[in-house]
UniProtKB/TrEMBL annotation:
Pfam families assigned: TctC
InterPro entries in UniProt: BUG, Bug_dom1
Family in the record: Belongs to the UPF0065 (bug) family.
PANTHER family according to UniProt: BLR1237 PROTEIN, TRICARBOXYLATE-BINDING PROTEIN
Protein name: Tripartite tricarboxylate transporter substrate binding protein
Organism superkingdom: Bacteria
Transmembrane segments: none
Length: 325
């Protein structure tokens, strides 16, 4: 199911109304937003956008900690090992909480050990290519990568078992293309190698920084994996507009999660605070710099429903993918 449609339905169930101010000084302990990747990525941009408002709303010091490695599982494990008092949150996407345990059994945790506090936004994915690759559309890329006897086209991802890896392998399986997975430790090195012509392709979000590189002719964008064109890239066709691959719709969500054993009172306090923070003009302005828009504020019940649905959907998609490099 396309994520935008899912959000539209659950938006109608979301809690509404103005939230009352939270009491100040409820905790002397700092609250830590754990980001599972180096600075500069989607999770990091989100964490730094909500940090000032969260600190103001809670009356509590809020720290952003970047802990990269093992497709986000190091950060996820840190959050699970922390005291379940609501003072350690993971700024999460499906990569860390759903896919990392499937790709790396040594992580020894499951998606069910987390509870979603807030879903902030969902962003569509797109297919990008190096400028020197002689293709200008999804169809021409598929045609090139199907030719017998040609080299496999290397495509980069942020790691084995990442959402980009699963979607890339799904693309390869559906199209019968000759692709070679090249995992990276983060988006920065991946993009540098795409600009430097070291890899041919990548699947990443429709994001302002990447679209800027497209405008500067450092990389190319071939198509967006949504039913309708993205407002951020209205001149870029969808996969559906081509002839060779229909119904290829994929997005990536970002939210905050805590250990499932976190007390209900702490969960409600965080949910209430974050609901206030995402409505602050300065928070919205900070996230828009990264090219995203906050979605509706969900109730805890609807956040749990969304999280469970995504867990099941992504597991189904990953089932047919060989999650190894």
């Amino acid at each position: 199911m396309e994520r935008r449609q899912a959000l539209t339905r659950i938006a109608g169930l979301a809690a509404s109304g103005t939230l009352p101010p939270l009491a100040r000084g409820q905790s002397e302990k700092a609250l830590t937003l754990v980001v599972p990747y180096p600075p500069g990525g989607g999770s990091d941009i989100l964490a730094r956008a909500i940090q000032p408002g969260l600190q103001k709303t809670l009356g509590q010091t809020v720290i952003v900690e970047n802990l990269a490695g093992a497709n986000g599982s190091l950060a996820a494990r840190k959050v699970l090992n922390a005291a379940p008092d609501g003072n350690t949150l993971l700024v999460a996407s499906p990569n860390e909480v759903v896919l990392a345990p499937l790709a790396m059994p040594g992580t020894r945790y499951t998606a069910e050990e987390f509870r979603m506090i807030n879903l902030f936004y969902v962003t569509p994915l797109a297919l990008y290519a190096r400028t020197g690759l002689t293709v200008d559309s999804v169809d021409s890329l598929i045609a090139l990568a199907r030719i017998d006897g040609t080299r496999e086209l290397p495509y980069g991802t942020t790691g084995v078992g990442s959402m980009y890896h699963v979607v890339g392998e799904n693309f390869r399986a559906l199209t019968g293309t000759r692709l070679l997975h090249v995992p990276y430790k983060g988006g920065g090195p991946l993009i540098q190698d795409l600009i430097g012509q070291q890899i041919d392709l990548t699947i990443l979000p429709v994001a302002a920084n990447l679209l800027g590189m497209v405008d500067a002719r450092q990389i190319k964008i071939l198509g967006v994996a949504t039913p309708q064109r993205s407002p951020m890239a209205p001149n870029v066709p969808t996969f559906d507009e081509g002839k060779l691959l229909k119904g290829f719709h994929h997005s990536l969500w970002f939210g905050t999660v805590v250990p499932a054993k976190t007390p209900e009172g702490a969960v409600r306090r965080l949910h209430q605070a974050l609901a206030q923070v995402v409505q602050m003009p300065e928070t919205r302005a900070a996230i828009q710099v990264g090219g995203a828009e906050f979605g509706p504020v969900l109730s805890l019940t609807d956040a749990a429903r969304f999280y469970a649905s995504e867990n099941a959907r992504i597991r189904r998609m990953a089932k047919g993918v060989k999650l190894e490099s």
